[in-house]
Amino acid sequence: MTMALLLSDSESLTASPPPSREGPDAATTDDTSSAPAIIDTGDRQGNHAEQVCAPSPVLHAGSGNKNAFKTLIAAEYSGVKVELAKDFQMGVSNKTTQFLKMNPIGKVPILETPDGAVFESNAIARYVTRLKADNPLYGSSLIDYAHIEQWMDFATTEVDANTGKWLYPRMGFYPYAAVTEESAIAALKRAFGSLNTHLASNTFLVGHSVTLADIVLTCNLYLGFSRILTKSFTSEFPHVERYFWTMVNQPNFKKIIGDVKQAEAVPPVPKKAAPAKEQKPKEAKKEAPKEAPKPKVAEKPAEEEEAPKPKPKNPLDLLPPSKMILDDWKRLYSNTKTNFREVAIKGFWDMYDPEGYSLWFCDYKYNDENTVSFVTMNKVGGFLQRMDLCRKYAFGKMLVVGSEPPFKVKGLWLFRGSEIPKFVMDEVYDMELYEWTKVDLCDEAQKERVNAMIEDQEPFEGEALLDAKCFK
Fold first, then answer.
1. What element of type H or E holds 148?
2. Is 314 helix (H, G, I), strand (E, B) or coil?
3. d(CA 188, CA 229)
4. Which residue has the higher pLDDT, 63 or 342?
5. Matching PANTHER family, A to Z (predicted)?
6. Cα–Cα distance measured from residue 278 to residue 206, given in angstroms and rounded to the nearest whole number
7. What is the dihedral of CA 141, 77, 30, 143, to 10 degrees?
8. Which alpha helices (H) appear in 211-288, and where do they start and end?
9. For residues 75 and 129, what is the distance between their CA atoms, to the nearest angstrom?
């Protein structure tokens, strides 16, 4: 089977439309194989019958559209022929009367079928997948099907949506707002952390082979990896990295997407367009040449207006100064190799400022789930990755305790301020998975527990120490 892979020169990151095209008039059979359907148009008296091939579905989309990739890759795996509309031009083809009849909103991609048009990329990919009976892209059981749908929703609402909120304003599609961007990045890190934990023990999203969920997620990841997710961002999520590069190098993916290169830099914020009123001084120069030098002074405010507004300060930066310098403690912790209790632990209590910082114990609420050691350790690792947004204001120790499952997860955290920072509670979903207890400094037993956790004391509270991780 030959698949037309010529796409239009116009690329759309949101949606891209198709050229005007006459819809097929002939009815089709229920045959879902890749071969064109054969229709007998002869009469019942045995007169000469003319055989007509039912046309293949036609996909209207622009060049490089990751939403079109979903359908084309699904078609490759399913052995279904899907043609691409020729000479598609974004902003032209999708505004024709014929196109707007298929989708009044004018978005792309659209799949034109003999039975009518289908829009929304996930719906199109589902349609093409179902053209093949018992398609393994939909798993082998009802629970597989549910999990595939689950991850497709995750790919759309958690990965694609937040990638777009970060990328599109920097491409000039929407107004840029620093607060919105920070929120999107935090949400994307949370999504990647959750995905990283799942992929730590799974090669594919569902089961042991590629499904439609993998196709949809990989195409959504492709947008981020190729446009804005640099190595410095993705390196925090090694299992997501491994998964993405494995997927895009599968033959059916590579045939459609081609070679993929990771973004080397985050696109800059577009400069604001110069206001129209700035052209007035030029006209004044023509009418009064002697006064020409004066308007030059007025050009400076325009440059000042283009300067980006400073990011709002973190509330923790507005707290009264503390005698404890967190970086000094982190250096002491890292550099103390011997006599740890005499040097590092004693140094910690000498530095500690109960007015400027607070200490907290955390205990995982669902230890009964921790039946596999490496999965439990990866869960803790994912939590620490998602805590990156507060690295400047925190120090933490996380312990995995026990020689046999279920394993217990316990932690100690030092936070700037007298309470756990609100932005951490809001942005790091793992926080809700733990019971948080403020350390009572008047209780010597609790202070000794702090010492034991900082020191990675083994055994810890009578049990073997399986793993200890430090956040610094």
1. helix 142-154
2. coil
3. 10
4. 342
5. ELONGATION FACTOR 1-GAMMA 1-RELATED, ELONGATION FACTOR 1-GAMMA 3
6. 58
7. 10
8. 212-227, 231-234, 238-248, 251-257, 280-287
9. 7
The one-character DSSP state at 244 is H
> Which of 34-38, 217-221, 241-245 has the weakest average pLDDT?
34-38
Nearest to 139 by CA among 209, 86, 64: 209
Residue 303: pLDDT over 60:
no
pLDDT at 429 (0 to 100): 82
For the stretch 326-369, pLDDT in tens is 999 999 999 998 899 999 999 999 999 999 999 999 999 999 98
Q: Note the pTM of the prediction, 2 decimals.
A: 0.50
pLDDT digits (tens, 9 = 90+) for 406-444: 999 999 999 999 999 999 998 888 899 999 999 999 999
19 and 60 in contact (C-beta within 8 Å)? yes
pLDDT in tens, 434-468: 999 999 999 999 999 999 999 999 999 999 999 99
Phi and psi at 23, nearest 5°, equal -75, 145
Q: Are 455 and 349 in contact (CB under 8 A)?
A: no
Alpha carbon of 472 to those of 63, 157, 312, 468: distances in Å? 45, 31, 24, 13
- pLDDT for residue 220 is more than 70: yes
* Higher-confidence position of 189 and 48: 189
How far is Cα 437 from Cα 360, in angstroms, rounded to an integer?
6
136 three-state secondary structure: helix
What's the Rg (C-alpha) of the chain? 30
Classify 106 in phi/psi space as left (phi over 0), alpha (psi -120 to 50) or beta: left
For residue 437, the SS3 value is: strand
Q: Long-range pairs for 320-324 at CB < 8 Å and ≥24 separation?
A: 320/355, 320/356, 321/356, 322/353, 322/355, 322/356, 322/357, 322/416, 323/351, 323/353, 323/356, 324/351, 324/352, 324/353, 324/356, 324/357
